[in-house]
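Case study 2.
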Amino acid sequence: MTAGITSTQPSSLTSILHYFVIVVAAVLLVQTSWLSASQEDDKTAIKAAREASNQAIAAHDAAAVASFWDEEYVITISTGDIEHSPKESEASFAQHFKEFPDVLYVRTPAEIIVSETYPLAWEQGTWVGTVTNENGPLKKGGSYASGWRKVDGVWKIRSELFVGLYCEGPGC
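Prediction:
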């Protein structure tokens, strides 16, 4: 090269750096796409499990309702009482179904967030319960939040919080 004339050819180092940047960008793009697709699959699985648990309640099948719970399941029910084990909650559902043959609870998710780091997810939404008691038909509802944990590839409800925000009908 002659003094004062610059080369328009990129150096080997510049070419290697450009290549490296392109490879890293491609890897990040693929990883992000995979993560998003995986999270969407998990959200779909949680929504399906929630719908199936609603159907189990409609069928008054306490064992089926309990099948969606993690082994260390804890629930705060709408009145503020806490049940500390799946067996306690299953027995509570069974008694409730026996006592109120038309009882129905429907939980409707508004948001599900899947952790990017842990096998955990957050669900929040609204719930509505209907029942006929000794005073007549009753409708109550409110908000809920659920913590989910993925166990052996299956999403299980680890904890739930139901807050009763309204009650309509005799006996409220």
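The first strand starts at residue 69 and ends at 76.
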